[in-house]
Amino acid sequence: MSVCIVSCSVLKGELLQLRAEGKLDAELVFVSKNFHVDYAQLETNLRKMLAHTKQRFRGRIVLVYGSLCLGQSGEMEKLADEFGVVRVDALNCIDCQLGGSGRALETDPEHNLMFMGPGMVEFFADMKRNLLQQGMDESSFRGLFSGIKGLVLLDTCGDKAKLLGNLSALGMGLEVVEVLEVGLGGVLRVVLEAVERG
User: Fold this and answer.
1) What are phi and psi of 150, to 5 degrees?
2) Which H/E stretch holds residue 187?
3) Are 155 and 179 in contact (CB under 8 A)?
4) What backbone phi and psi angles, to 5 degrees, belong to 85?
5) How many CB atoms lie within 10 A of CB 71?
6) What angle do CA 72, 28, 43 make, to 5 degrees?
């Protein structure tokens, strides 16, 4: 059966690479990661994309969004049920990159680290650009991350040096405490598991 993946663009690099390597045979549809700053805006755009995809695609649709991506009260699960699509078993994109099923919580039980994969580095670069255009200064931007002890970089696509350079240029004022070379296996695992369930 044909498969269509509707995913946050934060995982675009991983999903495109998996498809290019022949490990994932699916149509890919992406919703902008920049909607993540506003749950209502994300839900509106995700609804539009799911309605459009359901109308034109007759195969299995897999929603690659975590259970926490629309809030903490099961909103994403309700949305998946409403549209009759299967959703990955993950809390968020970081959990997808780590293999899902809540592994992100096991990796940082104290919640004092920030995990960054390639898409999240891009997300914060876009966010910073927008905030600076709105009048925020560099010092205030760094202040947004004051409660965080450090960064854990997730190298999913095998471009650690580029990621570290982009992260350094971002100027978040946080030390990279660890680089986890997780590869694409986590994302592939959660997607294929959802396809099987669907």
Assistant:
1) 175, 175
2) helix 185-197
3) yes
4) -115, 160
5) 13
6) 30
